[in-house]
Amino acid sequence: MVQSARLDSADSALDFIYSAELEKEIFDRVSAHYAPHLPPARLNPPRDAQTPEERQGLIDYAIWNGSHDLFIVQVVARGISTLFKDDTEFQFALARQLGDDGLHALASRERITALSGSDGTERIAAAVRHHWQVLGDFPLSSWQAFLAWELHFEHHILARLFVNRRSSQIVDLPTRDFAENRIMPDEEYHRIKITEWWLRKLKSASFAQREHWVGEVLEADEKLQRLLGGYLRDSWALNARASGIDTRNYIPLYDGWRREILALLTGRSIAELPSLTSLAGVDREHEAALSPQPETV
Q: Which residues, at least 6 apart from 221, have a Cβ–Cβ distance to it below 8 Å?
């Protein structure tokens, strides 16, 4: 009876519909606490780059985005053929993610060419190789590690993207239009489908199995946080240099967002989560390993 009651309680904690509206509600709550200076919506429209330095910042940011998306394509492709070769339903969701992020990566490369007059393929490829060097095959070591990797590359990253949407001052206008009309809806769909798959899996499990899986996913999420610390900090710095986003208090903002997402997706309260590594407290040996390097003349 006790275990049944605990399972019922856990079920109720997972009884929600994941959506962009829910994400905004959570981010608004977190930002009100950690970054009250952020507006609830953009106050002024951004402008296009006006100097060679600003244009180079946008090129470097496009390199980052292109390599990020192409790395997702590579990991997802391997995941479909290995970890999830017998999970046809999840394969459909991952196939959509693979195709969408492939298109996003291609769009970044095309904007690099338009902005710089040269092909950015090798810089993107080099940045993707750095991803593999730092993470190795850990995202493909188990479905729990894969899910944790998805949370980092799709869900946790959203804290910075919210800040970007509300405070960026400089943008590549064609990229912004493509992001608003295609990338943002695509990424929302990916997060929803990944979340739905995970929640179905949890709800179909016994209480003991559920607790075991949650523990493994949280452990994998923590390992990835430590590995990706430098990458994450550099991504905020690059976004600030390229777009002028407001990075005040970004570390507690990111940490708070990550805690809220993990609590929501595991059915646990904030207090029930294990101690989580702060973005400020990770090992800095990977500080620059994943950052696209500026071109030298």
A: 148, 151, 152, 262
Q: What's the pTM?
A: 0.91
Q: Which amino acid is at 134?
A: V
Average pLDDT, the chain: 92
Q: pLDDT, tens digit, for every residue of 18-68?
A: 999 999 999 999 999 999 999 999 999 999 999 999 999 999 999 999 999
Backbone angles phi, psi at 170, to 5 degrees: -125, 130
Residue 150 tokens read as: 């998805």
Q: H or E stretch including 193?
A: helix 184-203
Other CB atoms within 10 A of residue 67 CB: 26
Calculate the alpha carbon distances from 171 to 83, 235, 284 in Å.
38, 16, 29
Torsion-angle region of 295 (φ positive above 0: left; ψ -120 to 50: alpha; else: beta): beta
Both tokens assigned to 206: 């016994």
* 245 three-class SS: coil
Distances from the Cα of 217 to the Cαs of 23, 35, 223, 224, 228, in angstroms?
A: 20, 28, 10, 11, 16
Summarize pLDDT for 59-83 with one digit per residue, the tens.
Answer: 999 999 999 999 999 999 999 999 9
d(CA 284, CA 56): 26
Query: Cα angle vertex 109, ends 188, 64, to 5°?
Result: 65
CA atoms of 94 and 184, how far apart (whole Å): 17
Q: At what angle do helices 250-266 and 20-34 cross, to 10 degrees?
A: 140
| N- to C-terminal Cα separation, the chain | 71
| 160 CB burial (10 A radius; 0-12, 13-18, 19+) | buried
